[in-house]
Amino acid sequence: MLSELFGDLSHKNNNPLVENAFKEMGQAIQLLQKEMDRYEDPTHDLRKLEIWTRGLVSSLIELDESYAAAEFFRKSIIIAGFMDDMSAKEQLDYARYVYFYKNGFIRVFAVLDKLGTFLNEVYDLQTSKVKSQYSYFTVLRQFSYNHTYESLGHLLVAIRDEYRQPINDLRKRRNAEIHYMNVEMEDDLWQRHQGLHDKIILEDVDKHLLELKQGIDMVSRTLSTVYRYTSERWIRKDIQT
């Protein structure tokens, strides 16, 4: 969608981790289609997994595009350190940057939670017995609790731990954005309280973009690992889910 507005944003950054995730999911879709042709999928279980996988492909494209759009508008901003020192054009581009940056960090967790639903179904983790509304991270703990498919669980935990700090920072921002007062407005109000006539200091946009990039890397590596492991398992078991 964003590519129509800004050109080919979806693959503008040529992130090899994103591309590899697309490759692994694409191969899984081909495998599912082949087996549906062979067995006609009377229960529609394979079709459901194919639809979910296509949904994850679309979600990763939207996440990648959000990051690319945020990066695009960041390049239009000459960061002077203060909102008041920006030109009207810069303030508009900054607002656009904030919009796509927020869209990006919200989508990081949306993709992970959708993947959690996929994992819960394919590996029968029964996460809903632990928590009716669960996140990817709740599903991840089920591998250890259930002592099942622990080799996959260990791989996913290692990825989670490698990106723990940026993911925690993004999660705090996501929670503030969804559940509390708009986070940058809250920060602006605090600054005004400190000094009514003081200039509003901008956040470190480059640091935030780097954290979002790390979030995309974590999501992409997680998707690649899940679909590579799952496809290999399907092949060994003749894809009977």
TrEMBL record:
Kindly name one Pfam family recorded for this protein: HEPN_Cthe2314
Top-rank lineage group of the source organism? Bacteria
Cthe-2314-like HEPN domain residues are: 52-230
Cross-referenced InterPro entries, in alphabetical order? HEPN_Cthe2314 (IPR041394)
Entry protein name = Cthe-2314-like HEPN domain-containing protein
**Which organism is the protein's source?**
Paenibacillus glacialis
Lineage, opening ranks = Bacteria, Bacillati, Bacillota, Bacilli, Bacillales
